[in-house]
Design brief:
Layout (H helix, E strand, L loop, with lengths): L2 H14 L7 H4 L7 H16 L3 H16 L3 H24 L5 H12 L12 H10 L3 H47 L7 H39 L9 H13 L8 H11 L3 H17 L1 H24 L29
The protein binds a DNA duplex (14 and 14 nucleotides) through helix 12.
Length: 346
DNA sequence: TCTGATGATTGCCT
DNA sequence: AGGCAATCATCAGA
């Protein structure tokens, strides 16, 4: 530390050397010999500061030039930079090495998975595919919703990329500006390239925190869109008339045991263009509702029973099989509407 | 707008 | 795991 006063003194010496704008006694570096003389000098300097004009700025440029040309300048600045490095910057440096932010990684992963960042996925997101599978049946409506989802997702993607580009551009502009400024200043004050580098990384950190906010809000938007899309599965559509007929036909022709096997369910699902789960739901609902109010379903049961009987008769007449899928439980018979849930045949 | 019908979901049971 | 029962949410006709 005892170096500094000496250095500062020599610095001052460099700065004042041969400057045309300063009083003669300042250029000589001696100052006044008595107290009144010193006060006079300080007063002169203050006076100069207070009366800076365009002309004095020109003088400052000349002074800067003189400073740059001084033979001691590079060595002096090197030493000053070293001292700075050892004090302030080393303290900051200890805090610089940060592990990758887990939250940022999570956001990046999610944006990648949803196809917002990274290469655009042709078939839309995993969420869309999952929801498409979940909603099963209504194909046309589903694909319409799917494309709606994709359109909204690509809108989010576009906004995200535009904003990201804007931030990156602003970051680059600002970094360049600060670097130029520091390089320029490094001619008149001790700034090492390392310090410039550090400043750049500080700027990048600031901008990346802004980017993180952008990523966060983008993720939120995707989540909202996704949940809205997945909720759409609750928007049920009634099965078409033909599907209902097929299901009812099976139900009433197997009234004594209305529990289709897995194969039968698959066959029904195929015929009705719905999922096996929907077939199961339908039979679950039908059984419980039939049981609760047999009287109400009497007419329907009779109608389907008659229809089944007719088709069975036709089938036997033509020597072919009946229309209903696989299980020939009550085939040929006239299933009376006497379903008793306790008497399952299994 | 109301109301019954109906597909889906949930929690419990066997 | 599959079924039952209750319930929810939406559709569709009056």
């Amino acid at each position: 530390m005892d170096e500094q006063p000496r250095l500062m003194h020599s610095h001052a010496g460099v700065g004042m050397a041969g400057h045309p704008g300063l009083p003669q006694h300042m250029q000589e570096g001696t100052g006044g010999t008595d107290g009144d003389g010193r006060k006079q000098d300080i007063g002169d300097i203050l006076q100069q500061i207070m009366t800076i004009t365009d002309q004095s700025l020109d003088e400052a440029q000349a002074r800067k030039h003189a400073l740059n040309c001084h033979r001691m300048k590079p060595a002096l600045f090197n030493v000053l930079c070293e001292i700075k490095e050892k004090t302030v910057l080393s303290i900051r440096g200890a805090q610089e090495e940060e592990p990758p932010d887990p939250q940022l990684m999570r956001l990046d992963n999610m944006l990648l998975a949803e196809g917002v960042s990274g290469p655009e996925k042709g078939g839309g997101s995993a969420a869309a595919a999952a929801a498409a599978a979940a909603s099963g049946g209504a194909g046309a409506d589903n694909s319409a919703e799917h494309s709606d989802y994709r359109a909204k997702l690509s809108q989010i993607r576009q906004i995200y990329h535009t904003e990201l580009e804007k931030y990156e551009q602003a970051c680059n502009e600002f970094t360049t500006h600060v670097m130029n400024l520091l390089r320029e200043q490094s001619r008149t004050r001790p700034i090492s390239p390392k310090e410039i580098e550090r400043m750049v990384s500080i700027i990048h950190r600031k901008f990346s925190s802004i980017q993180m906010q952008l990523k966060q809000s983008t993720c939120e938007a995707v989540m909202i869109l996704r949940s809205r899309f997945l909720d759409a599965r609750r928007k049920r559509r009634n099965f078409n008339k033909q599907a209902t007929e097929i299901l009812n036909e099976y139900f009433y022709s197997h009234l004594s045991n209305p529990y289709p096997s897995e194969e039968a369910k698959e066959e029904l699902a195929k015929k009705c263009s719905i999922t096996v789960a929907q077939v199961s739901n339908w039979f679950g609902n039908k059984r419980i509702r039939y049981k609760k109010n047999i009287g109400k379903f009497q007419e329907e049961a009779n109608m389907y029973a008659a229809r089944t009987a007719v088709s069975a008769t036709n089938a036997s007449a033509h020597g072919s099989q009946a229309n209903s899928p696989s299980t020939p439980n009550s085939a040929g018979g006239y299933p009376s509407p006497c379903y008793q849930p306790d008497r399952r045949i299994q």
